[in-house]
Structures are given as C-alpha cells and as structure tokens.
Design goal:
Radius of gyration of chain A: 22 Å
Order of helices and strands of chain A: H
Number of strands of chain A: 0
Helix content of chain B: over 70%
Oligomer: heterodimer
Structural class of chain B: mainly alpha
Helix content of chain A: over 70%
Shape of chain B: globular
Number of helices of chain A: 1
Largest sheet of chain A: none
Radius of gyration of chain B: 19 Å
Strand content of chain A: under 5%
Largest sheet of chain B: none
Distance between the termini of chain B: 22 Å
Strand content of chain B: under 5%
Order of helices and strands of chain B: HHHHHHH
Shape of chain A: rod-shaped
Number of strands of chain B: 0
Structural class of chain A: mainly alpha
Amino acid sequence: MDNLGFIVAGYTLTWVTLVWYAWRTNRRLDAASRALDEWTQTSAGAGRPAGDPGA
Amino acid sequence: MIVTNKSGKANLIGIAALATLLIGSFVGLFVVSPDRLQGDVQRLMYVHVPAAWLAFLSFFVVFLMSVLYLIQRDLKWDRVAHASAEIGVVFTVLTLALGSMWGKPTWGVWWTWDPRLTTTAIMLAIYVGYLAIRSFADDPDKRARWAAIVGIIGFANVPIVYLSVIWWRTLHQPPSSPRSVSPEILWTLLFNLLAFTLVYTYLMMRRIRLAKVEGELEQRVAYNG
C-alpha cells in the first residue's frame, strides 16, 4: 500500500476524534446529571421547591 | 434520574454507529480496489467526504433550528442548534485535517489558499464564533437570540463552500457523481456516509440531552440562588 503513513494517520485521527468526542460528551452528561440530582436533593432538604423553578 | 428509554435508544444507535464505522473503515482500507490514478491514498476519501457532508448537515440543522427558535422562541430549538454546531465544528476540523493528509501526497502541500480550503476554513471560524458568542450572554433567551442570528447569517457560507469548486478554478477536485466513479467506490462511500450519519445521530442525542440537563441546572440555580 503506497502512502501508508497518511492513510493510517487519517483513519486513526477519525476514530480517535469521534470516540474522544463521544466519551467527553458522555462524561459531561454524567457530571451534569449528577449535579442536577444533588441540587434536587439538597433543595428538598433545605425546604426549597425542588421541582420546576417556576412552580 | 435522567436515564430513561431515550438513553437506551441512544445506546442502540451508538452500537449501530460503531459497527457500521468499523465495517466501513475495514472495507475502505482493505476491500475496495485502489483508485486508478491516485492509488491507495484515495482511501482517505471514505472518511474525508462523509466528514465534510456531515459538517454541512450539522450546519443546515443549526440554520433550521435557528429559524424555528426565532419564530417560536422555544429554547428547545436553541438546544438542538447548539448541539449541532458543536458537532459540526468537530466534523469540520476532521474534514480539514483529513484533506490536508490527502493533499500532501497528491498536491505536494499540506495547505494552500485554494477557494474550497479557504471557504471551509471561514466556515470553521464562523461556527467557532457561534459557539464563542454563546458565552457572552448569561440570559438564555438573549444567548439563544444572538446565536440564532449568527446561525442564520453564517449558513450563507455553506453553499459557497460546496459551490466553490464549480465557481472558481481550484486545486480541489469538483464533486464526483455516481456516473464518474465505479460502483464499488460509490457503495463504499455511501456505506461510510451511513456510518457517519449514525455517529452524528448518536452524538446529537447525547449532546441535546446534555444541553437540556445543563439548561435545567442553570434555571434552578438562577431561580433558587
């Protein structure tokens, strides 16, 4: 296979980029979901309305 | 808890995306014959072209959702636009990097100020700007309004990127058609396009969910202090 280095680099970059972005998004989602759960529990404990802020 | 049926659906699409991407990469690398003129390096087309198409699709979704937001003033459209812009930026960076890796062995240079490359770089700058402008406003409605305006005006560059190889004399090849490529190249390209579309769908589902959770958190902090 000619230009093997460019081909391998291109496919590796594609995979690494897409997997990294998916991993990063899932990590951010987990962290945000956890923060929301904690906020809901803390708010309920402090007697604040835990549900819809407009309620 | 946020994890629901939607998470299960996203995971299924994620698995399908991973499987099709694996098969598409394998076929693109080892099964399909090399190009008659360019040789093996043309195999980069099976990742470069789908990445570019998905960047276009992402920014079309940003445009559409921005219009919907301005009409209905519903933040759910802004969340979709935001998610699609971020994913579009990832695909655009990938397109430029892969194009550069293909350009070096075929053109002899990593980068040239060719109309296709230049307009693509401008497209990247516009959507990085779209993401940056969102951090300037604390109020979600104001932020969504500013972003929607950039999302609509910025989209004007997307057809220019596509048509640049037709309008101007460029080093970049013009768009291929099913009549100008062999069926095996065409089907491999279409399969990889399907894989990238599934990847986009999966990423969108997760990224929209993230925007929704972050929005709820922001709203609660703002109301409850």
